């Protein structure tokens, strides 16, 4: 006779069958499993992949840098400072290297300040006195001629067809616009362009820069040129006869009244002047 414990429990038999199905067969020891897990954890992580930029991106970047450099260079090369002096005024202009230009009335100078370290060049029209600091070549270009120095002082008169250069200190090289004629000036020498040829002569250089002190000196200059200078200095308009073919030697001081100066210049040539309206004069021949 079986005891109660020995009786078969149908529910217990079901549990045993279920356990037999869920049981896992371990083919490796616990130590082997831990060793594999540690090895897996210590394995180095794969590096990130480097993806190269597309070649066209590099090309665009290089092109952009080149454009910026070209633009900066063009700006430095062609940016221009310009000083214009109207009638009745004088003006002192300092250039980037400390050189000075004293501009007479009705004159203009242009230069490239950001390119000055590479090339000391100015474009000029009118009349001016230059004091140039020593250094590389300094060049003044006018419509009718080119003046080149290293470090010196000189005066240039460049109006219409007239081109005259006077050397005060140092040495000055003067060329016509076509560079077919060239002269070298020493102190108290002047070069004047006549029929596209440069003629050199000795002068008293101080007289050619007396205009800086508002005194204007003329030596055998055409009379219309003298009246032109009076127009510029006093900011007036002067009408001249068509056949005024006289030459004038003399001087006048800007401190004098314009009418007094006109009277002084006209008298030797039997000329008279009439004021048509304020600031407008007409020169007439006396009968």
TrEMBL record:
Signal sequence coordinates: none
Positions of transmembrane segments: 57-76
Gene3D superfamilies from the UniProt entry: 2.60.120.1440, 3.55.50.30
Keywords tagged on the record: Membrane, Transmembrane, Transmembrane helix
Boundaries of every FecR protein domain copy: 84-173
Residue ranges annotated for the Protein FecR C-terminal domain, each copy included: 215-280
Alphabetized Pfam families for the sequence: FecR, FecR_C
Gene Ontology molecular function terms on file: sigma factor antagonist activity
UniProt-recorded name of the protein: FecR family protein
